[in-house]
Sequence to fold (161 residues):
Amino acid sequence: MEQITSGTMPEKMRSNLYIIFSSCGVIYALNYEYVCEIIPCMDTVLVNGAPEYIRGLINYGGEICPVISLCSISAKEPDNVSAKSCIIMIKSSGSGNALIGILAGSFLGSFGFSENDIKPVGSGDYSAANGPLIGTAECPHGTAAVLSPGNFFKWMDWLEI
Fold:
């Protein structure tokens, strides 16, 4: 798997470029400016009593980081790890650059679109429900659920690492 980092791309390009990935039968888009790295999937340490969206903890460059599963958002199909699975490491400037991993079924590539291309969430297959979903947008792989990484950390107020 090719290692991808955000440090080599001009900021203006990062703001309109989205990482496209699948998880639990749903296509997601995440703004490239929040992505630190896409790494191969690894074993996680389970956390007793953690909410269902917390897959576990990993050691990422000496820092203990939670890995979340988006299956609790989509509820489309179970969270299965395969040879195509990866972990997308993201940061949130609103949370002191805290790091979190998102378990992805597969990395599908990147696609550029503007804020005008993102349609607010309505009724249907997607539910925002205090989660990270901010809307949907069309990409070469179909309709992608567009995520906001800042909202992942609202989910994680229970966890103090």
In short: The longest strand covers residues 17-23. The radius of gyration is 15 Å.
